[in-house]
Amino acid sequence: MAGDGDGDGRGDSIRVCGMQFAYEMQPPLFMDFDLSVAPGSRCLLLGANGSGKTTLLKILAGKHLVGGRNVVRVLNRSAFHDTQLACSGDLSYLGGSWSKTIGSAGEIPLQGDFSAEHMIFGVEGSDPVRRDKLIELLDIDLQWRMHKVSDGQRRRVQICMGLLHPFQVLLLDEVTVDLDVVTRMDFLEFLREECDQRGATIVYATHIFDGLETWATHLVYIQDGELRKSERLSDIEELKHSANLHSVVKSWLRAETKQSKRKLPDTTQKPSLFGASPFTSSRHMAYYR
Ligand SMILES: Nc1ncnc2c1ncn2[C@@H]1O[C@H](COP(=O)(O)OP(=O)(O)OP(=O)(O)O)[C@@H](O)[C@H]1O
After folding, report:
1. Which end of the chain is more exposed for a tag (fewer CB within 10 A), N or C?
2. From atom 27 of ligand 1, which residue's Cα is the shortest distance away?
3. Distance from C-alpha of 156 to C-alpha of 94, rounded to nearest angstrom
4. Is 26 exposed, middle or buried (0-12, 13-18, 19+ CB in 10 A)?
């Protein structure tokens, strides 16, 4: 369990219980998957390419339908069914695509011929003090035209818009990759304060570990849709010896590669895209928002 909730899971910011998920016409990615994340956690979500990080974050963000109302709970509300979660700003998701869901306005593309000012000031109900702080922190020029800025500049506007409301849960899918090192560090520091001062919860999927040993409180490691580790950073044995997250995660990923190499390919049975997976019933098919 990533975090120290109240024991029965109701006090957790995020609770996933027995989740099953498959993309349409694909074998199951998650089977009986459990996860708990306590309030105030800064939780890294780690795993190899294709292990399921983005899918998990999208499920938590309510973008994919899974099972019943109690399977994926965020702030004790159903991630998929409670549309107010995202609209109210309590839950914020920042992913790789160049669009941002803003309340009732829906999905806003971030590459149109608009100014940064238009985008940022268009987010309804934001606190001007928080807005000014974010604009300064992310060093945003309000005159930028969104279709002419660099990826890093566009990313800063996306992040600013995503943080304007004081979220309770923030899901980050590798959005710092375009940021320069100073902006990234300032951004991480801002997030640390949000957790420490307001008890906000962050789940951050990344392959860049620079500076995260002292930033993160918890770590979740998944392999092919299976939860391998969900621990406090301070409890991870290897980190007690190495204190270098990069090399520790590298050793886990190398071990995965060795394991998969040891498995002999079964040339007699090819996985069928249309096979009789229990997850290809209509109840389990992926449903996108
Ligand atoms: N829309 C989709 N339809 C079918 N399969 C998908 C879809 N999106 C992802 N997958 C598959 O689901 C698995 C998990 O993908 P996902 O993007 O969640 O991995 P990830 O851990 O975020 O990877 P990365 O580190 O490369 O971003 C992969 O095998 C991928 O091919």
Report:
1. C
2. 49
3. 11
4. middle
Residue type at position 47: G
- All domains of the chain in start order, with CATH: 14-256 (3.40.50.300)
Tens digit of each residue's pLDDT (9 = 90 or more) over 97-111: 655 555 544 556 666
Tell me the whole-structure pTM to 2 decimals.
0.86
Nearest ligand 1 atom to the CA of 207 is: 25
User: Measured between alpha carbons, how far is 232 from 239 in angstroms, rounded to an integer?
Assistant: 11
ipTM: 0.98
User: Could you report the per-residue pLDDT of 63-99, keeping only the tens digit for each?
Assistant: 998 877 789 999 999 988 888 888 778 999 998 765 5
Which helix H or strand E contains 153, and what residues bound it? Answer: helix 151-163
What's the 207 CA to ligand 1 centre distance in angstroms? Answer: 15
Name the token pair of 214. Answer: 């002292």
User: Cα of 205 to ligand 1 centre, how many Å?
Assistant: 13
